[in-house]
Amino acid sequence: MLVHTISEVREKVREWKKQGLTVGLVPTMGALHAGHKSLIDKSVEKCDKTVVSVFVNPIQFCPGEDLDKYPRTLDADEKLCNEAGVDIVFAPSPKEMYGEGHIMSNDFLTYVIPPFFYVNKLCGKSRVGHFDGVCTVVNKLFNIVQPDFAFFGEKDRQQLIILKKMVNDLNIPIEIISCPIVREESGLALSSRNKYLSEEDKKDALALSKILFNIKACYNKGVTDCNALTETAYSYLNQKHSLEYLEFRDENDLEEKKTADDGTIVFIALKIGEVRLIDNISLRA
Ligand code: AMP
């Protein structure tokens, strides 16, 4: 069932709650693929009812980013959701979410701002304000749907860590369920932004997963010095790659690691032309 308004979602969820049913929420920006589907399947399996939100959230895009050209495929998304047993696809307009005039500046909108220590690194460094937009919209979705469980992918690991922190700090009574990264057979992590890649670019994009898999293989052989592990990456890079970061950080609080251990996540971001891709891997076996 496709729903565009907040009041319709609320009404439905109220009925479910009266019947004592559990509710799962899968927040997405649409252009759904097998990565999103894995979150949806988990929710459908775990919860009595599942709501998938499809909303390209304008306030999490920085100036000059791909807000206008971000793929929008609502018909196909709705079909995928129906086939997966989703109860509601919630696809609000920006106006429905942010009101008349799409008030998006923090002069006029109440924002949820995650801690500086969590956002002054990795993607937060180049995408200033991005995680403010993410936390704000996820909070709104939590308040609209009031789910018992919310499902997020490890593909966006910094986001996942920040959202867990937000739920903990603000005592939000929702359990965050993290879901493993779904990859193509080649190793490339699925992403809606892969649609921007040509066949040639896709080959270059394999550098991300190759670098991460190689680092994990070296760690498994006993290398723990993060500088030494970083060195192994360079042979996978060519002139088309512009490496934004390759960093080793703690899985809970994003503290930098000089020596890798099982609680370390290796984060990578690189650009191929104009397309910016991210990936990460946990060093836990
Ligand atoms: P997005 O539509 O890109 O905002 O993603 C919606 C949710 O799907 C987020 O929690 C992402 O982390 C998750 N997701 C996206 N791609 C993947 C993937 N390849 N594997 C697992 N989860 C994913």
Characterize this entry briefly.
The protein has ten helices and nine strands. It has 285 residues and is of the alpha/beta class. It has two domains: 2-179, HUPs (Rossmann fold, 3-Layer(aba) Sandwich), CATH 3.40.50; 192-282, Pantoate-beta-alanine ligase, C-terminal domain (Pantoate--beta-alanine Ligase, Chain: A,domain 2).
Beta content: 15-25%
- Termini separation comes to 40 Å
Number of strands: 9
The CATH class of the largest domain turns out to be Alpha Beta
What class, by secondary structure content?
alpha/beta
Rg over alpha carbons: 19 Å
**What's the overall average pLDDT, rounded?**
96
The major beta sheet can be summarized as: 6 strands, parallel
Q: Count the domains.
A: 2
List segments where confidence is low: pLDDT < 50 over at least 5 consecutive residues: none
- CATH-level-4 superfamily name of the largest domain: HUPs
Shape: globular
Percent range of helical residues: 25-40%
- What count of helical segments does DSSP give? 10
- The CATH architecture of the largest domain can be given as 3-Layer(aba) Sandwich
What ligand molecules are bound, each kind once?
adenosine monophosphate
Along the chain, the helix and strand elements come as: EHEHEHEHHHHEHEHHEEE
CATH topology of the largest domain: Rossmann fold
For the largest beta sheet, what order do the strands appear in spatially?
1-4-3-2-5-6
